[in-house]
Design goal:
By secondary structure, this protein is of the alpha+beta class. The protein has a single domain, classed as Roll (Flavocytochrome B2, Chain A, domain 1). Helix content is 34%, strand content 19%. The protein has helices spanning 3-11, 26-29, 60-64, 74-79, 82-90, 100-103, and strands at residues 22-24, 33-34, 37-42, 45-48, 92-96. A 5-stranded mixed beta sheet has the order 1-5-4-3-2. A hairpin with a 2-residue loop joins strand 2 (33-34) and strand 3. The chain is globular and about 40 Å long. Mean pLDDT is 84; it is low at 3-13. The protein binds protoporphyrin IX containing FE.
Length: 108
């Protein structure tokens, strides 16, 4: 992969179902907190859970309130059955990276 493709992968917004992998800042993750696009964090791993909202047995709201980086969903992931965990993990979109501008001020 050439340098332009690497940068494009990291900055282009992920479309649900698309196999794009990149690194995203918290500012980018925060925008994905609605029915149109919901991302959850498990540590620094980012998962797109939009496809599960409608059919989620625990309801869409259980997921939405923790989406957009509102919480670390490590414990939520482990609470699920092995089958559900496997489905969840299929939808990894990337990893969290520090925001370069915010780092100047010593914040994450
Ligand atoms: C932060 C994200 C999530 C939260 C807070 C959450 C929460 C919950 C809750 C409260 C239940 C109900 C448990 C009960 O039966 O009383 C549940 C069940 C379930 N959830 Fe989620 N969930 C999340 C993400 C997901 C994702 C991404 C998937 C897709 C794979 C998923 C699949 C399931 C399934 C299949 C069940 C039924 C029980 C099982 O098989 O584990 N959940 N979830």
């Amino acid at each position: 992969m050439d340098a332009v493709s690497i940068i494009a992968t990291a900055y282009v917004h992920h479309v649900p179902g698309a196999p794009a992998h990149g690194t995203y800042t918290m500012c980018q993750v925060r925008r994905h907190n609605h029915v149109g696009s919901a991302w959850v964090l498990v540590g620094t791993a980012i998962y797109d859970v939009t496809p599960f909202l409608r059919s989620h047995p625990g309801g869409a709201q259980a997921i939405l309130k923790k989406s957009g980086g509102a919480a670390d969903c490590t414990e939520d992931l482990l609470f699920h059955s092995k089958r559900a965990q496997k489905e969840w993990k299929k939808n990894k979109v990337g990893t969290l990276r520090r925001c370069p501008r915010v780092r100047e001020f010593g914040l994450f």
